[in-house]
Amino acid sequence: MKKDKVKNLQVKFSDAVAGCLPIQLKAGNKKYVDCFSCYWDPLPDLKHWLEAIVIGVEQTSFTYDNEGQNIKFDAQSLWIDREKKYLFTITWIEGNRVEFQVVVDRKQMIGAFFNGFVKYFKSDKYNPLEWEFHAIHDKLYNLLALDYEQLVDYCAKLNTQELTALLERIDDVRGVLWVDDYVSKDYNKKTFEDKREQIKKMLKQNANPYEGMSLANFRSEIIEKYLKENEL
């Protein structure tokens, strides 16, 4: 295989809307468009996949569900003029249908994915409320400026009506519907310590309709060090 078969990969993320994160890949005359779903969030696996390629494994893959198809991202190493490259293939598992396949340079591919993602995350186009899991305790930290233990104590001193009023003050009132789901019917009669335990469980719940990972957590020392040492 000749070097002219190696294509530059372009990766673009678009505005996340209602738990859908659009992604577009282009290489030469080939193009692939899909939407990542926050409910089967592939971002943790995507990061680990990129890290495996950085390390230089011979083959690595992961699969995800886009709420309609099970899709596989695969990278298979190969050598071109004594340089290690990767055959990047995207396959729809049902029917084993190849949707996108291109030979890429490792450094360029890693940079395209990672830098494209970071650029999108830092842009004013990204609205985390359209993608991320936001625990109730994170919302209340910002609202009340209390640490975790202080927050638990504060909430445990409230009755269910007061808890509901408190949750109405956070960004997403969907959390208000969960008060009765995560505290017992006899909550108001519980001891302070019993209330604390129920409050701890409630504070872990999602106050947002979406369940994607925080894009801030996409950071990777392995990838960042590699890109710094191999600037394109």
Describe this entry's structure for a reader.
The chain folds into two domains: 3-131 and 220-229, 2-Layer Sandwich (Secreted effector protein pipB2 fold), CATH 3.30.2450; 136-203. It has helices at residues 43-55, 106-122, 136-144, 148-156, 160-167, 179-182, 192-203, 221-229; strands at residues 10-13, 20-27, 30-37, 59-65, 70-80, 83-92, 97-105. It starts with 9 loop residues before the first strand and ends with a helix. The mean pLDDT is 89. A four-stranded antiparallel beta sheet has the order 4-5-6-7. Strands 1-2-3 form a three-stranded antiparallel beta sheet. It has eight helices and seven strands, in the order βββαββββααααααα. With 232 residues, it is α+β, with helices and mostly antiparallel strands. The longest helix has 17 residues, at 106-122. Helix 4 crosses helix 7.
